[in-house]
Amino acid sequence: MSFKVIKANVLAANDDVAGKIREMLAKTGTYMINIISSPGAGKTSFLEKVGPMLRREKISFIIVTGDCFTSRDAERMDKLKLPVVQINTGNGCHIDAGLIKKSLKGTDLKKTDLVIVENVGNLICPAEFDVGEDAKIAFLSTAEGADKPLKYPLLFRESKLAVINKVDLLKYVDFNLLFCVKNINNINSGLKILKVSCKTGEGLGGFVKWIVSEIRNKKTRKKGVSR
Amino acid sequence: MSFKVIKANVLAANDDVAGKIREMLAKTGTYMINIISSPGAGKTSFLEKVGPMLRREKISFIIVTGDCFTSRDAERMDKLKLPVVQINTGNGCHIDAGLIKKSLKGTDLKKTDLVIVENVGNLICPAEFDVGEDAKIAFLSTAEGADKPLKYPLLFRESKLAVINKVDLLKYVDFNLLFCVKNINNINSGLKILKVSCKTGEGLGGFVKWIVSEIRNKKTRKKGVSR
Fold first, then answer.
1. What ranges do the domains of chain B cover?
2. Do B70 and A6 touch (CB under 8 A)?
3. CB count in 10 Å sphere of residue A222
4. What is the pLDDT of residues B134-151, one digit of tens each?
5. From CA A179, how far away is CA B77, in angstroms rounded?
6. Contact A202, A50 (CB under 8 A)
7. For site-directed labelling of A107, which of A32, A151, A184, A213 has its Cα 20 to 30 A away?
8. Contact partners, residue B183, CB within 8 Å, separation at least 6
9. Which superfamily is assigned to A2-217 in CATH?
10. Which of B87, B93, B128, B200 has the most A C-beta neighbours within 10 Å, making it the best mutation to test the interface with A?
């Protein structure tokens, strides 16, 4: 029981900081996504492909990537000249709002359309922590099994978009796509679902279209407010 | 800082219970493994295949399977008449020693050679929690990428065996097996590594051989002590 109370306090403190980040992003009209997946679902490969596409759309962005140890993901993105900040959480299982606040220091948000948070590979804890994002993205792969939404419902309940990656593997793995989509719909009927392959590029254009539209909508709302 | 102290207290309380479980298992000569992996690495498929093989070896065992929600894994094993207890952790990200103690109530450990803990799908938090096991097993799949040992070193440091599953997918995914093995060896040079496929059955005999030998060694040590 005592642990639960402690956890509630930790979450409340986190939510305060997240609220401040959200205010800050509202002022500059900067959109923030928080991508959450299992280890190895393909978040970094996704950003390696999507980053250059966003650049072609003239979207200015920064990637904040979290990992327990190593800066392998940041190095991969740095090779492509994608602007990236690495967070190492040690054995910490999620990124919290405080870490995001620190990571954004020195970033000129007025000149930034999009902050992309690539969370630590974990389907459970990151879903509990608001980091001030506009949208959580539940990112899963066909190699993981179609029952993951049922087993980790919080993430799918909290998300605005679900991305199913590695559709190129569908013919080699036992993944029932219809069952997976049905499970996602049962948990969160409003959740948009995109099927992609970071290997073949399939479906990535749909993601770029979605995020560009989200960014524009936020900027329009901001103008509406400041008028 | 305060969160770290709190965490230390939680871990200390957990270790007390884990110590008691370990004493209990020492008395009956029961071996316990704690299998830890990402969501969807194939733990349940592994147990579906290995369970009947253990039975043919006359190993009496019980499976304690953890999940945030649903009892899908337990149902899958129940269909095969494998003895199973389901733990639901809610949004809890790991199984702790207290949950194992509760799960073992009603089990006659004198008649049980092996307790198999199938942890919640998560590479981070479960590695921190001792549940009284003789061996943690780091279980990963070729679909996850070969850099996972580097990113989640604690699990590989704490484990006695690493199982690399889904070797049947090696020709369809970018997984550098040599790099993965090298990374594991760098973290824990004593770690035994098994390559398996739960789909084709490849390598599963090697696991059964290993666990049977571990169980026998523990029983021999127990006899040595009681003499």
1. 2-217
2. no
3. 16
4. 999 999 999 999 999 999
5. 20
6. no
7. A213
8. B146, B147, B149, B150
9. P-loop containing nucleotide triphosphate hydrolases (3.40.50.300)
10. B93
